[in-house]
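If you are new to this repository, start here. Below is one unmodified record pulled from the training split, so you can see the exact layout before writing a loader.
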Amino acid sequence: MEINILAGGPLELIPSLHSYSGEWIGVDRGVLTLIKEGIFVEKAFGDFDSVEEEELAFINKHVGELLTFPPEKDETDMEIAISWAIKQAPEKIRIFGATGGRLDHFFANIQLLFKPTALHETVPIEIIDCQNIISLIQAGTHTIERNDEYAYISFIPFHGEVEGLTLVGFKYPLTLRHIPIHSTLCISNELISDIGTISFSEGILMVIRSRD
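And here is the target side for that same chain:
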């Protein structure tokens, strides 16, 4: 099972949602977008302070389950939705509508990629928009497949400095490099093989696949 979560970010940054399989979860105004796209919403999370009363009644009629929360709370609506999704133990969680707009929400959503690690779970999470796919990887060895739609691949230290980074199959290979937290060394690389290998011994890397 894969779980897709749509938040209420700018519509122009959201790719075609029908290209993705799995269950759909809506967060706040993202629920309306899913309904209008003809996509069934299993669960809707939010305080829904960004929708009108008539819109909320419409949402309630068209979702599997509506879960509402007060605006004043210790977690964002997105964090509540992700926490629920992680407990379902899916193969993957994809997040849409989480970029653009307010920078505080964007950076908070980036931080939520770390949520499974904090909960000692192994569910991979991706934030996807029309131009980027963002994820985190922990120390170890990982493979990455070529994707010509998102040809550029950047690696940014996310938690601690990265030790022993080795990149194989890339245009700009590396061997056992130390990557400090402020480094831009690994911005805008590309795969020259169908499959690349990423390995490192310490730290957590943010992986950003992008296109112009």
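Two things worth knowing about this chain: The radius of gyration is 18 Å. DSSP finds five helices and eleven strands in the chain.
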